[in-house]
UniProtKB/TrEMBL annotation:
Name used for this protein in its record: NACHT domain-containing protein
Record key words, sorted: ATP-binding, Cytoplasm, Leucine-rich repeat, Metal-binding, Nucleotide-binding, Repeat, Zinc, Zinc-finger
Biased composition (Basic and acidic residues): 43-55
RING-type domain residues: 168-210
Gene Ontology molecular function: ATP binding; zinc ion binding
Family annotation (InterPro entries): B30.2/SPRY, B30.2/SPRY_sf, Butyrophylin_SPRY, ConA-like_dom_sf, Leu-rich_rpt, LRR_dom_sf, NACHT-assoc, NACHT_NTPase
Classification via Pfam families: FISNA (PF14484), LRR_6 (PF13516), NACHT (PF05729), NLRC4_HD2 (PF17776), PRY (PF13765), SPRY (PF00622), WHD_NOD2 (PF17779), zf-C3HC4_4 (PF15227)
B30.2/SPRY domain location: 1060-1257
Record's subcellular location: Cytoplasm
Residue ranges, compositional bias (Polar residues): 67-89
Length: 1257
């Protein structure tokens, strides 16, 4: 779609002002004839609104005088034209012209004779919204004096440069941001602008010094520009021509698909986009509509919007200059319009005049030369012919800005690890290498670079290369309303449309994208103002079905002279072409393509003329007439249009049994299936997508099965009768869909499919659940959990606490609830069997903007090092506000400490508590963590490292951390590590430091004797001001150690008020947990009669013969179980060997003995806990009839020394129960229960089936 309109030299575009201001002219001013005269209109300030985004309609790029030519004839344009391309992100939407203005033939004729013809291509965000023109007033015109006249005037002025740069002619002070008028006099920019503002009522913009009229603010020159002109008049002429070219290229956008060629001034329809620093960092493994849903509830108060013109201006707290900017935004949100606005303001001399040359390039254009070799200088000359005379020498000393638009459309291989360095702008290389070297700063180190992209493609640019990351958010709720109010002059109509939009959450969310606002406006205006009556669309499928009919009908009215037909007849007449478009849409949706070339259309049987006629659906985005740009490129107005047509095509293939298509998708087994089975297969296929690219497609597919949409699109979908029973089967299949091993974010799409089918039962059930007071009693199905996760995530109210264990559902259902973590302050995710996909969701919650999470407990999940790495991506985000992190028993190794320390160092100021108990971090891991303790800004106050396999060597690093000036540590738990006296001696050196602020220190079970106690007493005497609590239980302090520490308790100089030394004794000097070993004795009165005792009652075997045990009320009569006599207190440890299948358990003695209910078997109730083992190893743990699978690392499970021996460790006061598998040299942690024990615990066993046995070790 080519935009080829030439403007007379003296008729430049209107000038936009800030904050939505526009300039208008009086009649006299508009009539003023002088072509070289500046006519400065009086500024008309519109009331400031909250609307930061502009509704805009994408440009349709054709010459007005080409519109009635056949397609072939339009391919031959004058060779004298200058070809540029402003690429709008991947799919251009063409808005309708609501002004009704048309260009006369005379005007077109005048423009066509312009000496410098500009043939420009402006491709929009692959889904670019086309906003309507909101103003019926003609835009203001500002006359510029460019080229030779500019330099001649300066010559005539005779003003000496040295003289003019001394002081401002207005304030008489030293020049601040000096600029010169065309006559050569110098002023502070603020002074001259203020002067002209005050005199703007008369339209006067003359020089205050000599009275000569200036050419407006666009003609103001900086010192560097003035110097450039005086030293190289020819270069300045080139740059002036370049500005003229870019101005022509960007000043107009084309609106509408039915009125081709109607175009509006960008400055008239542009509203400041809502651009923010950073981005709402979601894990981009989900459809962009889901990202919109998350963004739709963000509090705008958390973000400081940035004007696109200020994209390179550093904030006050930013130290380094901004050279590379990466701007993200979903399709159609306005990235390319932002680029155009920036470029236009620069070309008009309004903004960023420190930049000498703006080089606008699109990846869509660069794709066409990706296999060729160019130098950077040649690249500029090819894409911007106006810069042909710019030499390499001039390029090196100029301030350049390269804008690369549409990274998501790139087919280049951007390899930033390639070591080929380029520093010469004349050196030829591949386009990819030119770009990477330019971005990295090897080529033209002073050049600025701006890249736009959709979120999923942004990771192609390494974060280390980006100085500023920004995001274009789209419309806020207020901006959505303003769009419709400005779109329609009929207030009643706009109010009805706004009211209807708010009734449907999916429609309301989608309206964050300006293009969808246009779609909504198009459909609802048609339905509310024509004879077409009926229920207004409530779902996305409804809306797009109506949109397709409206657009097709408009095409018919235009090309067939307004012949009226019914919607069904219209669709039938266009059926063949639309289905070809559907095929194109589907085949390329599967491949992830959003752009198509002529051969792609031809493969689907589409004629390019047909495609151009259907401009509201598929449109030619750009056609370049230069040698390398012979191929036109096509794309849909928005990705959602492509997805909808793909769904229409797929439904047609199903109803018409196109077996060759169905065999490929969803698969051979579905080519003869019923509708419910077919849709189930497609749903499963979509859930397997890694990035959710089929999510909206499958939602549309389900929506098309409804009778209402069948009636609308019957001619396209094919003749089929779908019974209510079939629809109910489809609904039931969705509700019972198994999404095992699927990211829980993806499961939410099942809920959306139900909504598209107008099944509101699930939505209503969850609404009732959220209102109920006894939530824990109601059992939730898996699909209810998905719906609840979505509604909790989207709720305006932030949950104070989100505890997965409090929801009455299955383990799978609990995992589907994970996405709700994004909207809570405290997340309790312990013992939930989380996997990689869940860690990614949690990381996205930490990265989201704003992030609400302040407390996160992921204990007893098998994170391992890979999971920690994912989590750290969230911890290092500047959006992360986490204060408490618990990773107790997560299978972490020393490498995990490296990841954690690096992430926490990069964002150290928030975390206050870190629990890493029961992870094999070892000494080297703790050393890295201590580096974090010593880092500036570290605010950590509580660190727990119990049972982390530490030795005395770790204490040196800990001591260094404690004595660091930046240390704020108040509590340190090192219990159950083999620190010994030598380690305590090192640790005591840190306690002596005046910088040490430690208040609580736990060294329980650390193999400490009186020597270690002496070191501690010495340290506390040296620095007695902080430590208040010291735990030395389960050590051997000896009499002398006890006396030293007890004396300290009485010393008024010490702050120590709590000292624990009992139990104490030499028995506690055994390394590891085996120091807590206890001897178990079977309680024979509890043994089931099918269990045989042997080996002095230390072995229990399940046998088929009933044993002759006396009756006893404590005996288990149904389950093959027994209890031991030993009541457990303090810390206890024991080991057992098993064969077959056994349950290794602990239980309160109050467990029921008679019957077969859950209250009788170990693990089936809240009185007992069990580890289930088979010959394959430990498999599951049970408590309160809830099972948890055991996952442990392959490195641990594959050890040849692993035996069928298990260990149990109980710390009764601490409320922890841990199960281990025993190898010859170590303990492999399996699972830990954290609770509060309310009764005395007893060991127990369940042995079944016959032949299974368990032996006490």
């Amino acid at each position: 779609m080519d935009q080829c309109e030439d403007r007379e030299e003296g008729v430049p575009p209107s000038k936009s002002t800030l904050c939505g201001e526009h300039e208008s002219q009086t009649k006299a001013q508009r009539a003023y004839p002088g072509p070289q005269t500046n006519i400065l209109g009086k500024r008309k300030t519109e009331e400031a609104t909250s609307m930061r985004d502009k509704t805009f309609l994408p440009p349709k790029m054709q010459r007005p005088d080409e519109q009635n030519q056949p397609f072939e004839s339009r391919q031959n344009v004058s060779d004298d034209s200058s070809c540029g391309s402003a690429n709008n992100d991947s799919s251009e939407e063409r808005p309708i012209d609501f002004t009704g203005q048309q260009h006369s033939a005379a005007e077109r004729g005048q423009r066509s004779q312009s000496p410098v013809s500009s043939c420009v291509s402006m491709s929009s965000d692959w889904s670019k919204p086309h906003p309507p023109d909101f103003s019926n007033e003609p835009g203001p015109t500002l006359n510029f004096n460019h080229g030779p006249e500019l330099t001649e005037e300066r010559k005539r002025s005779g003003v000496c440069e040295e003289e003019c740069l001394s002081c401002c002619a207005l304030c008489q002070d030293v020049l601040n941001d000096p600029v010169s008028t065309s006559c050569g006099h110098w002023f502070c920019r603020q002074c001259i602008c203020s002067y002209w503002d005050q005199s703007s009522s008369s339209g006067d913009s003359s020089c205050p010094q000599c009275g000569e009229r200036s050419r407006s603010r666009a003609g103001l020159q900086t010192a560097s520009q003035s110097s450039c002109v005086q030293t190289d008049v020819g270069l300045q002429e080139v740059l002036d021509e370049h500005k003229i070219s870019l101005r022509r290229r960007c000043e107009h956008v084309t609106e509408g698909s039915d009125e081709t060629g109607s175009r509006s001034l960008l400055n008239r329809i542009y509203t400041e986009l809502y651009i923010t620093e950073g981005q709402s960092e979601e894990v981009h493994t989900q459809h962009e509509v889901r990202q919109l849903e998350t963004a739709s509830k963000m509090d705008a108060l958390h973000d400081a919007p940035i004007r696109c013109q200020d994209i390179f201006k550093a904030l006050p707290d930013q130290q380094r200059p901004i050279r590379v900017v990466l701007t993200n935004g979903v399709a159609g949100v306005g990235k390319t319009f932002s680029v155009q606005k920036f470029t236009l303001d620069w070309a008009e001399g309004l903004e960023n005049q420190h930049v000498s040359v703006v080089v606008l390039l699109s990846f869509r254009e660069l794709n066409l030369i990706r296999d060729e070799q160019y130098s950077l200088l040649e690249l500029l000359h090819v894409f911007h012919p106006t810069l042909q005379k710019v030499t390499a020498e001039k390029l090196a000393v100029s301030q350049l800005l390269f804008i690369f638009d549409g990274l998501d459309e790139s087919r280049l291989s951007l390899d930033f690890t390639n070591r080929k360095l380029l520093s010469d702008v004349t050196q030829k290389s591949s386009v990819s290498q030119l770009l990477t070297n330019l971005i990295q700063g090897n080529l033209l180190p002073s050049a600025l670079v701006w890249i736009t992209s959709r979120p999923a493609a942004a990771n192609q640019i390494p974060p280390t290369c980006v100085d500023r990351l920004t995001e274009v958010r789209g419309f806020t709720d207020a901006q959505k309303e303003e769009y419709f109010r400005r779109r329609f002059s009929d207030e009643e109509l706009s109010s009805r449309i706004i009211s209807h939009m708010k009734t449907s959450r999916s429609l309301h969310i989608m309206c964050s994208i300006p293009v969808f606002c246009w779609i909504t406006a198009t459909v609802l205006e048609h339905m509310l103002t024509t004879e077409q009556r009926g229920e207004l669309p409530k779902t996305l499928t409804d809306m797009y079905s109506h949109f397709l009919l409206v657009q097709t009908k408009r095409k018919k009215n235009k090309y067939l002279e307004g012949h009226e037909t019914s919607p069904q007849e219209l669709t039938e007449a266009d059926r063949e072409v639309l289905l070809k478009l559907g095929r194109l849409a589907f085949e390329h949706l599967e491949k992830g393509n959003i752009m198509f070339y002529q051969e792609d259309l031809e493969q689907c049987g589409l004629d390019v003329i047909e495609a151009s006629v259907y401009s509201g659906v598929c449109t030619e985005i750009f056609k370049r007439e230069c040698v390398i740009f012979q191929k036109p490129v096509y794309c849909f107005v928005h990705l959602s249009i492509q997805e909808f047509l793909a769904a229409v095509y797929m439904f047609h293939c199903f109803t018409n049994r196109k077996t060759e298509v169905l065999e490929d998708f969803p698969g051979k087994e579905y080519k003869e299936s019923s509708l419910d089975v077919f849709l189930s297969g497609v749903m499963k296929k979509s859930l397997q997508s890694e990035n959710g690219h089929l999510d909206l497609f499958v939602r549309f597919l389900h929506g098309l099965s409804l009778e209402s949409n069948q009636r609308l699109l019957g001619g396209l979908l094919g003749q089929t009768e779908i019974s209510p029973e079939t629809i109910q089967k489809v609904i039931n299949n969705l509700k019972e869909m198994n999404s095992d091993k699927i990211c829980p974010d993806r499961s939410i799409n099942i809920f959306h499919c139900l909504m598209e089918m107008n099944d509101l039962s699930l939505f209503q059930e969850i609404q009732e659940f959220m209102k109920s007071e006894n939530r824990s009693e109601k059992e939730l199905s898996e699909i209810q959990c998905s719906a609840l996760a979505f509604m909790l995530q989207m709720s305006e109210e932030v949950l104070d606490e989100f505890d997965l264990q409090k929801y009455n559902t299955s383990e799978r259902g609990r995992l589907r609830l994970i996405p709700a973590v994004r909207n809570c302050r405290k997340a309790r995710l312990a013992e939930c069997g989380l996997s990689k996909t869940h860690f990614e969701v949690v990381a996205s919650a930490l990265k989201s903007k704003p992030s609400h999470l302040t407390e996160l407990d992921m204990s007893n999940n098998n994170l391992q090092d890979s999971g920690v790495k994912l989590l750290c991506a969230g911890l290092e985000s500047p959006n992360c506000r986490l204060k408490t992190l618990r990773l107790n028993c997560c299978g972490l190794l020393k490498i995990s400490s490296d990841f954690l320390a690096a992430a926490l160092k990069s964002n150290p100021s928030h975390l206050r508590e870190l629990d890493l108990n029961k992870n094999k971090l070892q000494d080297s891991g703790v050393k890295h963590l201590c580096g974090f303790l010593a880092s500036p800004g570290c605010g950590l106050e509580i660190l727990r490292l119990s049972l982390c396999d530490l030795s005395e060597r770790s204490c040196e690093a800990l001591s260094s951390g404690l004595s660091s000036r930046s240390s704020n540590l108040r509590q340190l738990d090192l219990s159950n590590n083999n620190l010994k006296d030598s380690g305590v001696k090192n640790l005591s050196e840190g306690l002596k430091s005046p910088h040490c602020t430690l208040e609580t220190l736990s060294l329980s079970g650390c193999l400490i004797t009186e020597e270690g106690c002496t070191s501690l007493a010495s340290a506390l005497s040296f620095n007695p001001s902080h430590l208040r609590e010291l735990d030395l239980s389960y050590n051997h302090p000896g009499d002398s150690g006890m006396k030293l520490l007890s004396a300290g308790l009485k010393d008024p100089g010490w702050r120590l008020d709590t000292l624990r030394v009992e139990p104490a004794g030499v028995r506690w000097l055994r390394p590891g947990l085996r120091k807590y070993s206890c001897q178990l004795t079977v309680d024979t009165n509890t043994v089931n009669t099918n269990l045989q005792l042997s080996d002095n009652n230390r072995k229990v075997t399940d046998v088929e013969e009933v044993q002759s045990y006396p009756d006893h009320p404590d005996r288990f009569d149904y389950f093959y179980q027994l209890l031991c006599r030993n009541g457990l207190t303090g810390r206890c440890y024991w080991e057992v060997e098993w064969r077959g299948k056994v349950y290794i358990s602990v239980s309160y003695r109050s467990i029921r003995r008679k019957g077969d209910g859950n209250d009788c078997w170990f693990g089936g109730n809240n009185h007992s806990w069990s580890l289930y083992c088979s010959d394959d190893g430990p498999c599951r743990v049970w408590h309160n009839n809830k099972v948890r699978s055991i996952l442990f690392s392959s490195s641990s499970s594959s050890s040849s020394s692993v035996s069928n021996r298990a260990a149990v460790y109980v710390d009764c006061p601490a409320g922890t129960l841990s199960f281990y598998r025993v190898s010859s040299d170590t303990l492999i942690h399996l699972h830990t229960f954290n609770t509060t024990f309310t009764q005395t615990l007893y060991p127990g066993f369940r042995v079944w089936p016959p032949g299974s046995s368990v032996s006490l070790c």
